[in-house]
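Much of the work behind modern protein science is quiet bookkeeping, done one molecule at a time. The protein below has been through that process, and both of its lines are reproduced in full.
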Amino acid sequence: MSMAPGPWPCLGQARQAQGDRRVPVCLVAPGEPPARIGSVDRAHLPALLADGVPLTVAPDGVARWWPLPREHRDATLAALHLRLRDRGLIRAWRDEPYPLLDEEGALQAVIERAASRFWGSITFGAHCNGYVADAQGRPTHLWVARRADSKPTDPGMLDNMIGGGVPHGQTPREALLREAWEEAGLMPDQMAGLQRGRVLELCCDIPEGLQHEWLHVYDLALPPDVQPLNQDGEVAWHRLMPVAQALEHARRGDMTVDAALATLDFALRHGLLAPQDAAVQASALEALQVATARAERIDPAPPAQG
């Protein structure tokens, strides 16, 4: 008698964080209430205090940085992050601006992308499942990418056709359209058929710190004769794999956690798993899903054509 299928490993990895090892952090500007922007590893508190950062841990267990006026905030944080990078406490530096948002979604500062993991602040990612379908519209093959060995995170692992982080000033959809050319050589007209999937919330400890991210999943059906071609050197190759082969890579952990989750979301929405397996995975994935109304505040639907 065969055993019931268990949840894919990526589902557990998406919520694998030791909450007691981190201290919540609030920024405080004169005349404003505290704005919680994330958390910091307790092991890093001595380094911050030694650097002169005025963090005070209140009786409620929350560290408050006071004062940090808005007019000096970006510059103060940028200088601190460079020092933390030089000490090895901020890793995988990107030179990419990311928004530093509070729990209400208000912008508190603009920071270096790598620093978001140090603070465990909310970030956004966008991934696209590129696929080929049969005459009835059922997916038969998925485009799978292999990350370049030079990538600062997850080098050499398998990935979705397109995927990346969302920088300051872009929506997840806009970031995906930009990444489409950089990662796969696809023009905007080739991306016109983008279809939304779920938005999934990850909160997991990673070597760079804490990944707290909303992953926006999209699908794109491509003609069989279209070959994705990387432009920026961040992808080693793209291969068109039968659906079963791609799903097996995602299930057994050959893909990044983000990519495996996006692939699982695709498989569930397109009915590609056996019923018993689908029921198990759908139940676990539901716990990660961000409500549509909340997600659309970050990634609004494009205006209707016509």
In short: DSSP finds nine helices and 13 strands in the chain. The CA atoms of residues 40 and 127 lie 27 Å apart. The chain has a mean pLDDT of 94.
